[in-house]
Design brief:
The chain is of the alpha+beta class and about 350 residues long. It contains 14 helices and four strands. A four-stranded antiparallel sheet has the order 1-2-4-3. Helix 6 packs across helix 12 and helix 9 runs antiparallel to helix 11. The protein is elongated and about 150 Å long. Keywords: Membrane, Transmembrane, Transmembrane helix.
Length: about 350
């Protein structure tokens, strides 16, 4: 019985005695009743204390042993800047920690001269098993992982002690960290460059294989964008024929030649009065066709639209493995631009349409 229970028992006994005394005085009990009451007041606390001690029973042996057992002696040793391998060759983690251990019951005749060495070896082996499977890109994340792995007391391989580690830090050498940062920047720049290259390839492919594949495709594309301007589309047939012929490095079809002549402002004469044609260039080059196209549009020498359109056409020709013709076109019209007061609606629409196509 605890001290609090004993105090409560005595208090209740005294209170009951006072109540019984008041009742006896009021009822005028006989003398023998007062003797019985006094005996009960004396015997009742003793009986209660005895019953409580019997119910509690003896103290467990295990508890007694715990009270008398000697405390476990724990030791510690600080290790700093230990190189541990990573998943990448030549990139090591720098490991530091406080190693704690306690000795187990030694075998008879078994003497341990350097328990700190065994504890450090056990901790480093556990840490190395983790670091050699991790890339050296996130040392701070690995630090928290090792803090959890090394937080438990585990026996070493010899079974002489149990060891753990705390205050774990994991870093990289400064030169290695700078190299990894540079590699990350290069990977990001490469991803952006490949994205831009894919976009340009998709743009050239769309112009060469869809919009400017032939004059009919160019007309359909133009009508789809300007379905309310059919008359203007008819007027620009010569322009579209010249542009598609230059983009595909081919001659203008004979059935469309009269449209080009009309675009140039020289309507073809009737068949009965048509004079003999002047000797033509036996081998006209794509740049010659493109020059005629620019002249028909009124894009004089030095006009920025000549060099701009020439570059776009050269890219389309180059995409079809016609490098020589593309170089000739780009060399022919590569000159310092002089910006005109306005630009043609056709050029503006082609550039905008090509620039908003989804990537392939």
């Amino acid at each position: 019985m605890t001290t609090a229970r004993r105090t409560t028992t005595v208090f209740l006994t005294v209170l009951c005695g006072l109540l019984a005394t008041i009742a006896g005085l009021a009822q005028q009990w006989p003398a023998w009743a007062w003797a019985v009451l006094a005996a009960l007041l004396i015997a009742l606390p003793a009986l209660l204390f005895r019953a409580a001690s019997l119910r509690r029973g003896p103290m467990p042996v295990s508890f007694e042993e715990q009270r008398t057992a000697a405390p476990v002696e724990r030791n510690e040793h600080r290790i700093s800047h230990v190189a541990l391998p990573s998943q990448w060759a030549d990139y090591d983690f720098v490991f530091s920690a406080t190693v704690r251990w306690y000795l187990l019951s030694p075998e008879p005749g078994d003497l341990i001269l350097n328990p700190a060495g065994l504890a450090v070896e056990a901790v480093l082996e556990r840490a190395r098993a983790v670091t050699e499977k991790r890339e050296p890109t996130r040392p701070s994340l690995l630090q928290h992982e090792l803090s959890g792995v090394l937080s438990r007391m585990l026996p070493d391989l010899t079974g002489h002690l149990q060891a753990m580690a705390e205050d774990v830090t994991v870093t990289l050498l400064q030169p290695d960290q700078e190299r990894l940062d540079k590699l990350a920047d290069v990977r990001k720049d490469k991803a952006v460059w490949e994205h831009q290259r894919t976009y340009e390839q998709s743009k050239r492919q769309y112009l060469g294989e869809d919009v400017l594949k032939d004059t009919g495709s160019a007309v359909v594309w133009w009508l789809a964008k300007h379905d309310e301007h059919v008359e203007k589309t008819v007027t620009d047939l010569g322009l579209l024929a010249q542009l598609t012929s230059a983009a595909n490095d081919s001659d203008i079809p004979e059935r469309l030649q009269h449209l080009v002549d009309e675009q140039l402002g020289h309507p073809a004469p009737a068949p009965s009065t048509m004079p003999d044609p002047l000797p033509a260039d036996p081998d006209p080059q794509p740049a010659d066709h493109l020059a005629d196209f620019f002249d028909s549009m009124g894009y004089t020498a030095g006009d920025v639209r000549r060099s701009f359109l020439a570059k776009q056409v050269a890219d389309l020709i180059r995409a079809q493995d016609q490098d020589e013709a593309a170089d000739d076109v780009q060399r022919r019209f590569d000159q310092p631009p002089s910006f005109p007061a306005d630009t043609t609606e056709t050029l503006h629409d082609i550039e905008n349409e090509a620039g908003h196509q989804p990537e392939s």
